[in-house]
Amino acid sequence: MNYQNPEKIPVGMLDNSSAMDCKNILCSPEIPLNLCPLNCIDQMFDLGIILKVKMLNCRLKYFVVLITLLLPAGIILAQDSTLIRFELKDQFNHVRTEKDFQSKLTILVGSDHNGSKYNDAWGKSIHDSLAGKGAQNRVEFLPVADLRGVPFFLKGFVKGKFPKEPARWILMDWKGQFAQAYNFVPAECNIIVFDGNGKIVHQTSVQEIDPLQLHKILDRIFANLPEEK
Asked: Taking the model in full, what pTM does it have?
């Protein structure tokens, strides 16, 4: 290799023997760095940049793999811990906001289409259990339908499939605001209990009625019921 050639060799043209020669020169204690040909130093500098970039890419790949492995093991993505601000219509076009639930113990029951078949059973079980203690009027239910993905031209059709009784109103969450805020589990009934300050005191996702799960939900509800006025 001709070290006296001042013309810089593009790094893409640098072969293994050239790189080894440069390394030997730079590492040699007999040759001061300020006397090493600039062409050779430039080549080693370019190689150093390439190696650093490759190392960075490798670290990023390991990080992605680590996250992928850990998430299914039970790591919960960050979510809201209080009742979010919202302004949504029900199937009767009545607007409701978070202000309608202030200072009240609120029980959110929500799901996507595949989980909706479980909602009525769980809502009724919780309501009837509270009624048995005379506490049904001390809570507010917040039914939510996660309707993300419904095409705009089908919204009217989908809305027409919901209950016709005004007492059975359900919020039409077309953008999935609640589902994203609280990490709804697909194809399940998601139940969240908020205390009078709007803070989550219990959250779970269920399918068929499970007496043990029902007991846990009721326990958290009764433990956080506001004082009767």
From this structure: 0.67
